[in-house]
Amino acid sequence: MKAWRTALTALLCAGLALALGAAMLALPGFAVRLPGQVAANLDDSGVAHPVTAVLLNFRGYDTLLEVAVLLLALLGVFALSLHGSGHARPSAPAHPVLQTLARLLAPLMVLVAGYLLWIGAHAPGGAFQAGAVLAAAGVLLRLAGLLPAWAQPGRLLRGGLALGLLVFLAVAAAALAQGSLLQYPLAYAGPLILLVEAGLTLSIGLTLAGLYLASAGWRQ
Amino acid sequence: MTDFLDPLPWLIVLPLAWGTLAFVLGPGRGGRLAVAAIALQGALALQLAGQLIDSGARVYAVGGWGASLGIDLMADGLAVVMLLLTQAVALPLAVYARGYFAASPKGRELFWPLTGFLLAALNALFLSADLFNIYVTLELLGLAAVGLVAIAGGTQPVTAAMRYLLATLLGSGAWLLGVALIYGTYGSVSLAVLTPLIHSGAPLAVPLAAALMLAGLLLKTALFPFHFWLPPAHGGAPAPVSALLSALVIKATFYLALRLWLELFLPLTTVAAAQLLGALGAAAILWGSVLALMQSRLKMLVAYSTVAQVGYLFLLFPLATQVPPAAAESALAGGVMQAVAHGLAKAAMFAAAGSMIVATGRDDIGHLGGVGVRLPLTLFSFGLAGVTLMGLPPSGGFSAKWLLLGSALETGQWWWVVVMIVGGLLTAAYVFKVLRRAFLPRAAGDRVARVPRTLEFSAFALALASILLGLFGAPLLELLAVGRAA
Amino acid sequence: MSAALLYALTGAALFAIGLAGLLLQPHLLRKILAFNILGSGVFLILVGLGQRDGTIDPVPQAMVLTGIVVAIAATALALALARQLLDLTGQMRLPEDRSDAEPVDD
């Protein structure tokens, strides 16, 4: 019975893959083409990199909701640690070489994060990449035993976690006076995007680190 | 300045903002803020409804770019009816939740932030006119709902949340694959741009995308046989959470299925597929009702009742596909009326069930004796909600089933009439199973405590609304027609 | 056949593999990995099909970046739930689907 179910599922999945492949090989030409539109409006977007322009301006609304999704995942993890069997476990003492290395690397990683944030306006980079590097620094420090696991976040930490989303929301709402949600005024689009990205870098870094640190203290 | 006070964007910004602020305020804080903000959201939704009645459907270009480059929001009658339902259910439930968590604090720490994000996701989803943006709102909705299921902790809720998360992720994965195929075919994800492009001779990728997206939505709506995740998730969460999930969250994915079927993929719809959806709906009605009748836990009974009531929503597909326009409009009105009536009644029912569980200290139908004496208003609310679910006049459920019945008879599909009548009888059976126990005297050794008045009155308000909907449903149907070519 | 289309076809295969894994593997960690394979398949299709005519298209690339962040968030929550389940039950799998009729006890 179980073997039949497995075989049938595998067969159906293979069939789906074949159908998808057949459909992809039979596509007609595009009806609408966006790359040209992105290029034509790039000058008005406030940034020089097309992907950043789509992420933070043309489809910035997606990004706004996506930041909320990230924070939401952390709220879910916090909810679990509230009732979990977990007690903040003291981290195992790490090797002194690892500790020294982590101490050396962490400030460098902060520097790299700042660079990625700045470069995002005209080259691959931006708030998410910068935030990920910040978070990696946090995880490294934890692995080296230099950072405690989070129990429940204090007020300052909660503020830091929420800052990016709040700044983004405030900018989006302030633009309502100009015309519509997230409509950056032409002259200020660049600085406003940088402001939003700076707030996001901090909050994304804290959130991603928190996804690890909040459950790091659970019993194993 | 009129732009600044436009209700449409604020319906999304406001719940995101108060949800985040509630988190910053700290564990368990933000209840009063939430009640005030949801009341404001209700006023905004009413204002938007007024705009629609006066001047028709609205399109809103986020960032001022417009489709296809930017993201459009769209408010037509159907979207605004769902928005009104969301705020109308959320406001009494927020009042209820403040009282509930005061009496039963387990899970209160993060309830408000998660609820803020959940309401933002719902409002954003109803307003979105962009397939990829809808994907993001679906994920926001799914993660908020899973978080809410898990907030009280414990083996059963965590297991239910895990199962729910896997189901909802698979559903959104299927949706996103469909979006990728659509973008790969046409080069756009805007509903307004795509709708005129899709015709019955579309390349294979398009019907494949339609099937994948619809399957993902059915999984997330818990239509039979995809209902396996719903009863433990809705039955195991704290009562205010169960009410939000059963009343609103599954309606959101139903709404998307309806939109795709009636608008974007209309040229691809077939009678056979519609009959299949109807048959699954019929199976859900019968299977869900029978299982509800067999439960010994009160909240599980109410959760299985949701499995059954979801079935009624899907009867609208065979009744609205390739039939005369008048019958199709009547079926649509009936289906949407059912969604609204069930939303109000199920929220009332879970709220009342929660009060009974708080009062008796256990979730067991066998120990409800004495509730009728101690909590008459709560039991009355449960009964009124039951009247709506059974479809008895003058409730909103009656109007819904009347419209669906009329459409079924007009199009000669009598078999759906039989399903609806049998389903109504089974509903009566499981509602009376609860009422009968609650009217018995209190058994020796049981206790029935009083509950805060806010719990009783907020549940009653919801139940009363579900009845009044039947008497004053005409304006809602008028609103529903805005933006639909007759 | 363009190179971009090759990516999309690979994506279709990955989606099917991920789907089969998600449905068939009982171990939660494998289910979560399978979900990520499925998601990567979709991302490949989105970008691959988006530039099948040879033009680089920044829009699906931005969408995939959004999708990756959403997938990270979902994966993190899933892992936390799986960890919690392991703490509570000692098992890294969901209890076998009980028949519908059986009431779920606490």
Keywords:
heterotrimer, A: 220 residues, mainly alpha, 8 helices, B: 486 residues, two-stranded antiparallel ribbon, 74% helix
Q: Short summary of the structure?
A:
The complex is a heterotrimer of chains A (220), B (486) and C (106). With 220 residues, chain A is mainly alpha-helical.
Descriptive overview:
The complex is a heterotrimer of chains A (220), B (486) and C (106). By secondary structure, chain A is mainly α. Chain A has one domain. Chain A contains eight helices and no strands. The radius of gyration of chain A is 22 Å and the shape is globular. Chain B is mostly helical and 486 residues long. Chain B has a domain at 270-486. A two-stranded antiparallel ribbon of chain B has the order 1-2. The longest helix of chain B has 36 residues, at 325-360. The radius of gyration of chain B is 21 Å and the shape is globular. Chain C has one domain: Orthogonal Bundle (Helix Hairpins), CATH 1.10.287.3510. Chain C is an all-alpha fold. Chain C is elongated, with a radius of gyration of 18 Å. The chains are: A mainly alpha (220), B mainly alpha (486), C mainly alpha (106).
What is the share of helical residues of chain B?
over 70%
Q: How many angstroms does the end-to-end distance of chain B come to?
A: 35 Å
* Morphology of chain C: elongated
- Named at the architecture level, the CATH assignment of chain C is Orthogonal Bundle
Largest sheet of chain B: 2 strands, antiparallel
Taken from the alpha-carbon principal axes, the silhouette of chain B is globular
Find the biggest chain interface: A-B, 59 and 64 residues
The low-confidence parts of chain B are none
Strand content of chain C: under 5%
